[in-house]
Amino acid sequence: MGRYVLRRLLQLIPVFIGTTFLIYWLVWSLPGDPFAGKCGDRPCPEAFVAAMTAKFNLGDPVVVQYGKYMMNLLQGDFGITFSGISVGDRIATAYPNTIRLALVALAIEAVIGISAGILTGLRGRGFLDNLVLVTTLFLISLPVFVTGFVLQIVLGFELGWIKTTVSESPAPWGQLIVPGFVLGSLSMAYVTRLTRSSIAENRRSDYVRTAVAKGLPQSRVVGVHLLRNSAIPVITFLGTDLGSLMGGAIITEGIFNIKGIGNLVYRGILSKEGVIVTGVVTLLVMVYLLSNLIVDMLYAVLDPRIRYD
Amino acid sequence: MTDPSNAATGAAVTSTASDSVTAAEHVESAGANKPRSLASDAWHDLRRRPLFIISGSLILVILVMAAFPGLFTSVDPTYADLGRSRNGPSSDAWFGYDNQGADIFARTIYGARASIIVGLCATILTVLIGGTLGLLAGYYGGWLDGLMSRVADVFFGLPFVLGAIVILSSFGATGSSNIAQIMFLVVVSISLLSWPVCMRIMRSAAITAKQQDYVRAARALGANSSRIILRHMLPNAAAPVLVYATIALGAFIGAEATLSFLGLGLRAPVVSWGVMIADSRDIIRVAPHTLLFPAAFLTTTVLAFVMLGDAVREALDPKMR
């Protein structure tokens, strides 16, 4: 197990470097004056340009810039923006909101998706099965912003059940339920379908028949034997989804005005604050890679037949 | 998903080897019919699926709409009259008027073209990149496979929306007003971020196909690598990629709308569903119809492609029956 983790960690390094370098290169070294529009209508003063060029190592080749940036980042220094605000602070205030939103979305998609999947997987073909299949197809095809706006208009403006914007900065959990549902709705459909097909496949397996033949109660057969064996693809999906939920939160955060990193990075891109963009993306990539690794570790817990040697 | 193709090929080989047995089997099962190939078997199965018929006819209508919008409406989609700005649906304009006073029904009809073009081009490019690399990685294996898989991991690690925003804003799509250039950039950024999925699907299908007897037989007969890849592995590994491509086409149309919605994809002189949705963003509270009608068309189109992909998958994978 230890050696496997080590090997996986070593494999992560080139991917991590590749992804972050790609973003760094895209943000910093493409044609265009990085100081354009930074100082209002006037061109920037020489002193400011010189100071910032030194600050962001803009005089170096891009690989050296990237190396210096990464060295600072690994020591916990995210750098400062052009206007001198610490990027680390900005991320520290915004990130908890996004984590909360992603966790709410993950919880909603896991609870609803898995229960709907189990229900239809056990029942087999029938009205309920078709209903759930059509609903999942519909959810898959609905773009997130449509779901978001429709729920915002109907539940917020028309019915007044929810607040239409989440303006407080440590966003209260209660107000994140609807945004979380919007963010997780697409994945919820996938979780449902995965669980359904996995349960339907394992329902006819030998160990389930054995468990039934031994006279185990239905709850134990389904809850322990069937669920645990069907969980692997679902857990894989949920684990990798946590990373993509955080990356995909830009639109949901925009609609409901949640002050998370999606919002931060979107404004960073529009105002060409490269430090914010690279910082946030690096963080997201790291979360994504680590959650993948943890998911792989979980396999051995769920299914003891899987060994890492 | 490659199992059915193996089974079909295996059956074909045995039928030529021992005629008597298969002849007897055919009398029993399918009368005088010749054994069908996987493709014709799948087609036969598809034609009776309600899911396929519904999605197929929807897609047909949408394609006709994209090709000949004049058949559905005689109103000019770019003609705007501020006097009727944000008017709701009426008998004159079924879907009402948008912020500028242009007919939403006409715009929705004409908008199909841009959305379909972007979706199709992005799908073709994704399948070309991902399919080629996946086939090569699966066939040659070794260091080439390792290198390509790592490169795919790099692109796969980028969150989609975030990556597309960075690419589009970095390559100056925000400043340019050249329609073809913006479309090209949108297509490229969607494909660049999506090809790893296609490559992984193709790679695993290619690895399965490579170990089959017909590939060994072809090699024993002296076929070179390009012939084995193109004539033997590609047809047998194409099924899962076909399913992926169908679903991806729908997803890419949605992605185009999402990018336009963020103000980074197609924009104003182009009429597309994404542009219409982006235009409606600030006025949804007072005029929700400006969002709902293009969004309904968008959702229906995506739904049609996802449904078609589902139907094709079930037809190609007999295990699901």
TrEMBL record, chain A:
Residues 95-299 form the ABC transmembrane type-1 domain. The keyword Membrane applies. The chain crosses the membrane at residues 9-28, 99-119, 131-153, 173-194, 275-302. InterPro entries: BPD_transp_1_N, MetI-like, MetI-like_sf. Keywords: Cell membrane, Membrane, Transmembrane, Transmembrane helix, Transport. Coiled coil: none annotated. Its main location: membrane. It is a multi-pass membrane protein. It is found in: Cell membrane. Belongs to the binding-protein-dependent transport system permease family. This is ABC transporter permease.
Automatic annotation (TrEMBL), chain B:
It is a multi-pass membrane protein. InterPro entries: BP-dependent_transpt_permease (IPR050366), MetI-like (IPR000515), MetI-like_sf (IPR035906), OppC_N (IPR025966). The chain crosses the membrane at residues 51-72, 116-142, 154-173, 179-198, 233-253, 290-312. Keywords: Cell membrane, Membrane, Transmembrane, Transmembrane helix, Transport. Gene3D superfamilies: MetI-like. It holds the Pfam family BPD_transp_1. It comes from the Bacteria. Residues 112-309 form the ABC transmembrane type-1 domain. It is found in: Cell membrane. Belongs to the binding-protein-dependent transport system permease family. PANTHER family: ABC TRANSPORTER PERMEASE PROTEIN (PTHR43386:SF6), OLIGOPEPTIDE TRANSPORT SYSTEM PERMEASE PROTEIN APPC (PTHR43386). This is ABC transporter permease. The lineage of its organism: Bacteria, Bacillati, Actinomycetota, Actinomycetes, Pseudonocardiales.
